[in-house]
Design a protein that fits this description.
40% of the residues lie in helices and 17% in strands. It is α+β, with helices and mostly antiparallel strands. It has two domains: 11-131 and 275-423, D-Maltodextrin-Binding Protein, domain 2, CATH 3.40.190; 134-273, Periplasmic binding protein-like II (D-Maltodextrin-Binding Protein, domain 2, 3-Layer(aba) Sandwich), CATH 3.40.190.
Length: 473
């Protein structure tokens, strides 16, 4: 499935899209005759027009809400119900079990399921929902312990703030015999990897996963635990955790409640990082190809609407998301991060035009290199227990991330004049190498093992981890 996908709509593009889809069907066990029939029907009427899609109450579910509220699903012949889920595990089980047809999903979930980490299921991600959108918040107690040591400019802390300033706090807790606990939303979430990345870049070990330690606390200086996103502020207020990494609006909710201070956004940890995906069971796309591509077309339209005219529609989006059936937070709290600004604490609101990106910068395209990055972090922290050759990373990424399906949808929209041709990238599926990380590390998706080897904290080639710690070369 490793192909070069061209963004320009022409016969070659169309044939490449169908060929890639056909290859995926063959991998799924379909006969050549079945493959030909399904590929031929990719642009037909939806085979399953009535659908239920799941989501978690976060700002970045916006493309689904907008696709419903602005009529984009209906335009594609779809009757869609959106259903909030209690947590990421319930959502994942719903997609795997078939009670949900697709869902707003953590990027790591379809990857982890496909490789059998936590649970085994063949899931795919044919569309990325957004870039950025998360932050790390500390309790007022911890913020007051570090703020005087931070560099200042014009009376405000200089950003990005390094986790190295937590070192004295963590050591103080340890001296009192207390763990320093922080929260994240799921073991294979972007939030887990971003929080771990930030801590490790500041010299703090967030611990490793082992078969006997599914919490990932082996060797940890800072322990991380799972809390559903909407419950993060209450868990912080209760003192169970001293900080967390979560998507909006739950960092801004801590500011509004006066219980915590966001100290860094994920855009400052990794500039323009990928976030959520639209996840499906692979056999859903095989059985209902026209439905799958119709869903993608509707969501791409919604993504374009969200970023149109430099965010002119964002205030309307805020009002929609504030409704109880969607995110259900106060509109002012959602707007505090979604309308081109980000509030770190009272009196410290800064421009943040790119905090939520849904369509611009090819946000919707499912890059193989994004999937490879998540796999490198799984290996770094022990969720992938053994070394693998670079080819394994590429093959796994291509089995889960499906630009062929994305292009089948996007190129149809280009043909109709709905989105511009230049909104679809010309790419081999890999982003250009980048060093836009808080630690200055360079990431080239073509060289995953070289990337893993460069980290000061994390498993290296030949290393494994057990309850007794890291061993090996």
């Amino acid at each position: 499935m490793t192909q070069i996908f061209k963004g320009n709509l022409n016969r070659r593009t169309a044939m490449t899209t169908l060929a890639g889809f056909a290859a995926a069907l063959m991998l799924a066990g379909c006969s050549s005759d079945e493959t030909a029939v399904v590929a031929a029907n990719i642009d037909g009427p939806p085979e399953k027009p009535t659908l239920k899609l799941g989501f978690i109450k976060l700002t970045d579910m916006a493309p689904l809400a907008i696709a419903l509220e602005k009529g984009f699903f209906v335009e594609e012949g779809l009757n869609v119900t959106l259903e909030p889920q209690a947590n990421w595990k319930v959502l994942l089980d719903g997609v795997i079990g078939g009670t949900l047809d697709a869902a707003h999903m953590l990027a790591g979930q379809p990857i982890a399921a496909t490789i059998g980490y936590g649970t085994q299921a063949n899931l795919i991600a044919p569309l990325s929902l957004d870039l950025n959108g998360n932050a790390i918040t500390l309790s007022n107690r911890v913020w007051n312990m570090i703020k005087d040591a931070l560099p200042q400019a014009n009376g405000r802390p200089v950003h990005p703030i390094s986790a190295e300033y937590l070192r004295p706090v963590v050591e103080s807790f340890a001296a009192q015999g207390k763990p320093f606990n922080m929260g994240m939303v799921f073991p294979v979430s972007t939030h887990n990897y971003e929080l771990r990345y930030w801590l490790a870049a500041g010299g703090l070990n967030p611990g490793y996963y082992t078969p006997g330690d599914v919490a990932g606390t082996t060797g940890a200086e800072v322990t991380l635990s799972v809390t559903p996103p909407p419950q993060m502020p209450a868990t912080l207020e209760a003192g169970t955790i001293e900080g967390y990494c979560v998507g909006e609006p739950w960092n801004q909710q801590a500011v509004a409640m006066g219980i915590g201070v966001p100290v860094i956004t994920d855009n400052e940890i990794w500039h323009d990082n990928p976030e959520k995906v639209l996840g499906f069971r692979e056999d859903f796309a095989v059985r209902y190809p026209a439905t799958t591509v119709a869903i993608l077309r509707a969501v791409i339209k919604a993504q374009q609407w969200l970023d149109a005219d430099s965010g002119a529609n964002r205030q309307e989006a805020v009002e929609i998301l504030s409704r109880p059936n969607y995110v259900g937070a106060d509109a002012a709290v959602i707007a505090a991060s979604m309308t081109g600004q980000f509030t770190f604490e009272a009196g410290d609101t800064r421009p943040a035009e790119g905090f939520n990106i849904f369509f611009d910068k090819f946000a919707g395209y499912p890059y193989f290199s994004d999937a490879v990055w998540f796999l490198t972090q799984m290996r770094r922290w022990g969720q992938v227990a053994e070394d693998h050759a670079d080819a394994w990373y590429f093959e796994t990424a291509a089995n889960v991330y499906r630009p062929d399906l994305y292009l089948a949808a996007a190129n149809k929209l280009v043909e109709a004049g709905t989105i511009p041709a230049e909104a679809v990238p010309e790419t081999d599926g890999f982003r250009a190498p980048t060093s836009a990380f808080i630690d200055g590390m360079s990431y080239d998706g073509h060289k995953p093992n070289d990337y893993i080897a460069g980290f000061a904290i994390g498993l290296k080639g030949g290393q494994s981890v057990s309850a007794s710690g890291v061993s090996g070369a």
